[in-house]
Amino acid sequence: MTQPQEHRAQFATRLGVVAVTVGSAVGLGNIWRFPYEAGANGGAAFMLLNLFFVFVIGVPVMCAEFVIGRHSGTNVRSAFRRMAPVQAWGIVGYIGIAASILILSFYSVVAGWTMEYIYRSIAGFGGSTATAMHNSFDAFASGNVRPTLWTIAFLLCNYAILARGVEKGIEKVSNILMPLLFVILIAFCIHSLFMPKAREGLTFLFHPDFSKISARTVLSAMGQAFFSLSLGLGGLITYAGYFSKKTPLVKTSLLTASLDSLVAILAGVIIFPAVFTYGQEPAAGPKLVFEVLPAIFSEMSGGVVWSTLFFLLLFLASLTSTISMSEISIAWFCDDLHMTRRRATRLNIGIAMALGSLCALSFGCLGGFKIFGMTIFDFFDYVSSNVLLPVGGMLISIFAGWVLKKSLVRRELEISAGHTRRLAGALIFCMQYVAPVCILVVFLAGIGIIKL
Ligand code: PFF
Asked: Among 24, 177, 313, which is best to mutate for testing ligand 1, by the most ligand atoms less than 8 A from CB?
């Protein structure tokens, strides 16, 4: 087994480590996806299930990624090549790199929508009813030029940060953005709590009705946990390659999972009181944020300010997540293909611009172009979320649980672990049994082999 590389960049501070890890986890998954999934799946019961999966499966898989990344000190592809007894494990690295580029492409389209909505918040939405917002969103998303230009603009923002490198770019930006995000979220929550139907909104979010739970709901809750924690594609393996030997992995993963869940819950506290107050439908689906909220904002006093803040928040959260997706392939290009950081960044962003434009156009002129019956956007989403991510997460968990020496995993988990030391054994058990079995069920259901 090769020793970790020397002279590699490292995140400078403990706060930096938390900021970049939470920055990766917190994104559209929490603020856009969680509320509409919870809205469509009965609210509180979905949230409780999601929390269960975050802590019982998400935390062990995250620890597995941290152990692999920190011990190997390299990118996701080399990590497996160095640590695995058989070369076949290298496929996990390629799965991660492929998934990261696919997710980056469609995620940038939605992030581009948030940029359009920051602009619209200031310039005006051109209507105030939910129907007007629905029509205006459809007209925007199905146009060819604007969504594509916003996708490219969003990726250029990524380039500006990524080209600056690990300490100067990613860590500095995350240190500023993440605390700012919390401040804006909390201010927004307080505002929502004073809405006339805040109580109904909060009841929907916090009072579980387990009769609403179906097998599908369970699967969606687990899928949400994976997507939201950025697990299964090696993003956290790559980041952990920049952790110092003193970074406590168990504490970092527990803190990340807790903060990530907190942001999702805060997003729910912001959105559901507003949805009930303005008589909107919680199960509006993926359009919830882009169609329902602007209608709500336009009726609120000070709506321009709240709307601008909300979409700015969503944009910032997306940015810190896409930076971590990009870093997966950039680290590989730099370490293994010996590219300069600038060149690697250009290549990553260039590929994402090409594929992202196709995804953006799939709502417009490429809408008729289908792969296995799906638009390009939906196909990228399906392949990454339903296939690559669960398969990657399961293999990562099996790798850490069964292939790596237990003493190595235990040592990595126990460094600076303090009172979390006892958890190491439980985490290894979850890596070996609980996580792989659960993920396998999700995957088989996701591709339709098991009918639930
Ligand atoms: N966790 C991010 C979110 O919730 O928006 C999405 C994500 C980021 C997925 C980074 C994968 C990844 F590597």
From this structure: 24
Asked, for residue 48, whether it belongs to a domain, the answer is: yes
Integer Cα distance of 342 and 350 in angstroms: 12
What digits encode the pLDDT tens for the residues 106-154? 999 999 999 999 999 998 876 767 677 778 888 999 999 999 999 999 9
Angle between helices 249-277 and 44-53 in degrees, nearest 10: 170
Å from CA of 26 to ligand 1 middle: 7
- Residue 433 CA to ligand 1 centre (angstroms): 25
Q: Are 148 and 361 in contact (CB under 8 A)?
A: yes
DSSP notation for 83-150: H-SSGGGHHHHHHHHHHHHHHHHHHHHHHHHHHHHHHHHHH--S--SHHHHHHHHHHHHH-SHHHHHH
| Residue 4 counted as domain residue | no
Cα of 315 to ligand 1 centre, how many Å? Answer: 13
**Residue whose CA lies nearest to ligand 1 atom number 9:** 230
- Classify 371 as helix, strand or coil: strand
389 Cα nearest atom in ligand 1: 11
What does the block give as tokens for 179?
């605390």
Cβ 324 under 6 angstroms from ligand 1: yes
Atom of ligand 1 nearest to the CA of 100: 13
Q: Which atom of ligand 1 is nearest to the CA of 235?
A: 13
* Alpha carbon of 399 to ligand 1 centroid (Å): 22
The total number of structural domains that make up the chain: 1
| Ligand 1: residue whose CA is nearest its atom 11 | 230
Is residue 235 within 6 Å of ligand 1 at its C-beta?
Answer: yes
How far, in Å, CA of 59 to CA of 62, rounded?
Answer: 5
% the chain with pLDDT above 70: 93
Say yes or no: CB of residue 24 within 6 Å of ligand 1: yes
Query: How far is 246 from 395, CA to CA, in rounded Å?
Result: 26
Residue 5 lies in a domain: no
Q: State CA 77 to chain mean position distance.
A: 21
Question: Which domain, by its residues, includes 199?
Answer: 14-446
Tell me, what CATH number does 52's domain have? 1.10.4160.10
Three-class DSSP category at 417: coil
Question: How much is the pLDDT for 346?
Answer: 96
3 within some domain: no
> What integer is the mean pLDDT of 166-171?
67
Distance (Å, whole) CA 3 – CA 449? 41
